[in-house]
Amino acid sequence: MSRSRKSDKASSAAITTIVSMRLYIAGSAPNSVQAIANLEAICRKHLKGIHKLEIVDILEHPLRAMADGVLVTPSLTKVLPLPVANVVGNLSDTSKVMLALGLKEKVE
Amino acid sequence: MNRMKKAIPQPLPKLATGIEGFDDLSRGGLPRNRTSLIIGGPGAGKTVFALQSLVNGIRRRQESGIFVAFEEASRQIIANGATFDWGLATLAKNKLFILDACLSPTAIQSGEFDLVGMLAMLKAKKQEIGAEWIVFDGIDVLLTLLRDPITEMQEIYRIRDWLADNALTAIITAKLDNGHTGDPHYGFMQFMADCVIRFERHLEHGVSTHRLGITKFRGSNFAAGEYPVSFGPSGIEVGATERTEITHAASTERISSGFERLDAMLGGGLFRGSSTLITGVPGTSKTTLAGKFAEAACQRGERTLFVSFDEGAEPIARNLSSVGIKLKPHIKSGLLRMYSARTETVSAEDHLLKIRALIREHQPRCMVIDPLTAIAKAGALGAARAVANRLIYMIKDEQVTVIITALNEGDDPQAESTDLQISSIADTWIHLSYVVRSGERNRALTIVKSRGTWHSNQVRELVLSATGLMLTDVYTAGGEVLMGTLRWEKEAEESARKTQRYAEFDHKRRELQFAEANTSAQIKALQMDLQRQRTALAMYSSDNNVRNVSSSDREKKLRKMRSADPATRVPGAEALHARHRIAPGPVKKGGNGAAK
Q: Which of A36, A60, A72 has the most B C-beta neighbours within 10 Å, making it the best mutation to test the interface with B?
C-alpha cells in the first residue's frame, strides 16, 4: 500500500519549491508508527502546503524498497529538491530532520 | 561424518561448508537451519569463511544464498572473492544475492530504528531465489549504530526469531577487537548462536598466522582446540589434524628405491604409498638418495614431483648428474616436476598449500621433499611440526609414495631424531651418518625402521662415484666397523689372502695329481713285469716236463741197450734219476756243463 498525502493548501503555494519525500516504514512497528507521527508534525509545522509525502510500507513492497536501497526502518528520503538526503530513525530528533530537509527551525 | 553415539538416533543435520579441514573439525559442517556465529579481529578471515561456505553450497549443491554485507560494498566483496578460484563473478545471479547493507555515511540518524523492514526485504528475496543460506557479514557495524545496548539486544533477538521462522542456515560474523571476553553483547550473541567459531590472527616469529577454533557447537561433537588457518587459491583451508580416522589404503606393491641393494635391505623395496624419511647431517647425500628414487620413478614412467627448499632445480639436477643421476630428460618430458621454494618469511602453512596445489596439479605417484626441515626456518616450530604432520598425512591420502629428507642439526651424528618429530609418522626411516675414523669421514647407511616389512640390520657404506652410488658391505673387525680406506685395506688384504690360498690349493692339487699319475704308472710297469714273469714261469714249467719225459725215455732206452742190469736194480736207477732231478738247470740249458 502506498499512501500519498498532499497538503491541503498545495494549490496556493507557489512561493517555495515543493519538498518531495518518501518515508519507508515497516507495518505497525513502534518506530515506524512514531516516525509517521513525527514527520507529519514537522510537515504541519514547517512545510504546510509545500510538500509531497509518499509512505512506503516495506512489509508490502519489500523488493521495491530493496531496489530503492533502503536498509533499516523507518527511513526517510528527501527526493526533491536535490541533493537527495537520507534520515534513518523514528525522526524524534526534529532538528536533525530539519537539517536533512534543508529547513530552518522557526523560533517558537 | 556424523558419528552416532550410543543410542541417540537423531544426529544434528549439518551443511558441509566445503572448507578443507573445517568439515572434519565440525564433524560435518555448520548446523543446518541454525545460526553460526563467527567472531574474530579484523582481517582474521571471517568474511572469506562465510562467503566461501556460501559459494561452496552454491557450486556443489546448487543451493542459493543471500550475503548481507554491512561492512563492505558488494563490488568490493566480489573483487575480493575473485582472488580465489570460485568463479564468483560468473556465479549465477539468481543463486547468490549480495545486499549492500552499508549505511550511507551521509545518512543522518534521528532517533531509533529497527531491522523490521530489512528483514521483510530479505524474506522477500529469500522466497524469490529460494535461499538456503544467509550471511550477515559484519553485524557489529550495524549494531554500533543502534547505540543503545538494550536496543542492540532487542534487534539481535529479532534476527534470531526471524532466522528461526525462515529456517535459514545462517552465518553471522562480528568483529571482536579486544581479546576474547569483549563486551557483553557478544556473550549474548554467542548464547543465541548454535555454533560459535573464533578466528584469530597473530604474529609468530615475524610470520602472520591465522588460527580458528570452535568454541561451541550445540548438540554436536566437535574437535576442540585451535587449528591453523591458511589462505590458498581456493580460499580458506583449516589445518585439521584431528581427523576422526586415518583412512590410508595399505598397498602391498613394492617399488624400487633406485638401488637394488637398498631394496634388498628393505626386504624388496618401498611399499607403494608409503613415506620414507631420510635423516642425516649436511653432506650425507640425502639428496642423492632422494634423486635416485625420483630417477627410478621416472624410468618406470611414473609422474614425479621433486620439491626442494633453498636450492634451485637447476643446481640440483646438475649436482645429481655428477653421480650419474639424470633428471633433466625427465624434466623435459614433463614426467618430473621440480619445484624450488625459498623458506625465509614464508610460513609453513603456505608451503603446505603450495605443495598441495602442486600435487593436485601434477598428480604425481612418487614425490620427494628435500629437506622438509626447511619449513621450520620461518615461523614457530610448533606450527611447522603440525604442518609437517599434515603434509605427510595429506601425501598419504593422495596415495603418493614419498621420500622426505630431514636435516639433523648439530654435530652429533648419533642424534637421529629430527626437530620436526616426523620420524614416528614415517613408515621407513633411513639414517645416514658420517663415521670418522683414521682421519676419514665415510658415509654410513642404516635402516632405523621399516614398518610392515623385514629389513636389514646391517650398516652399509655409501660410496659415491661418477658412475653412481654404491652400497658396500662394511667390515667388522675386532668389534669395529671398517669403512673407507680401512675397508679398502681390509678388502685388499682379504683378496690377497684369497689369491694365495687359491694358489696353494692349486699347487697341492697338482702335486697330488702328479703323485697319483706316478703311482699308476708304477703300477702299470709292475703289472707288465708281473706278466712277463708269469709268462717266463709258464714257459719254464713246460720245458721241464718235456725234459723229464725225454730223460726217462732215454734211460729206458739205455737200459734196453745195455741189457746188463735187471729191471730189479731199481735203487741204482733211482739214484741216477735223482741226480738228474737235483741239477736240472745246466742240463736244460745244455752244453756248457758247468755243473758236471
A: A72
DSSP B440: E
Q: Which pLDDT tens digit goes with each residue over B337-380?
A: 888 887 766 777 778 878 888 888 888 999 998 888 777 766 66
Q: Which CATH class is domain B14-106+113-238?
A: alpha beta
User: Which residues span the domain enclosing A32?
Assistant: 2-101
| CATH architecture for residues B254-473 | 3-Layer(aba) Sandwich (3.40)
Look at A88 and B109 and tell me if their CB atoms are within 8 Å. yes
Question: Residues B409-458: pLDDT tens digits?
Answer: 544 444 545 566 677 778 888 888 877 776 777 788 888 888 777 777 77
For B425-451, b where at least 16 C-beta lie within 10 A, e where not — what string?
bbbbbbbbbbbeeeeeebbbbbbeebe
What CATH code is carried by the domain that includes residue A88?
3.40.30.10
With a pLDDT cut of 70, the percent of chain B lying above it is 81
Q: Which of B100, B111, B123 sits opposite A91 (nearest CB)?
A: B111
> Is residue A107 included in any domain, yes or no?
no
Contact B108 A87 (CB under 8 A): yes
The Cα–Cα gap between B202 and B553 comes to 149
Kindly report the CA angle at B197 between B194 and B202, in degrees rounded to 5? 165
Q: Is residue A108 part of a domain?
A: no
For residues B239 and B254, give the distance between their C-alpha atoms in angstroms, rounded to a whole number: 31
Where do the DSSP E strands lie in B192-296? 195-204, 207-217, 226-232, 235-238, 254-255, 270-271, 275-280
> Is A106 inside a domain boundary?
no
pLDDT number for residue B249: 66
Domain tally for chain A? 1
Query: How far does the CA of residue A19 sit from the closest CA of chain B (Å)?
Result: 18
Where in chain B are the domains? 14-106+113-238, 254-473
Looking at this predicted complex, what is its ipTM?
0.78
- A positions 17-76 inside 8 Å of B (CB): 24-27, 29, 31-32, 34-35, 38, 58-59, 62-63, 65-66, 69-75
**Chain B contacts of A55, Cβ < 8 Å?**
none
Contact A87/B at CB under 8 A: yes
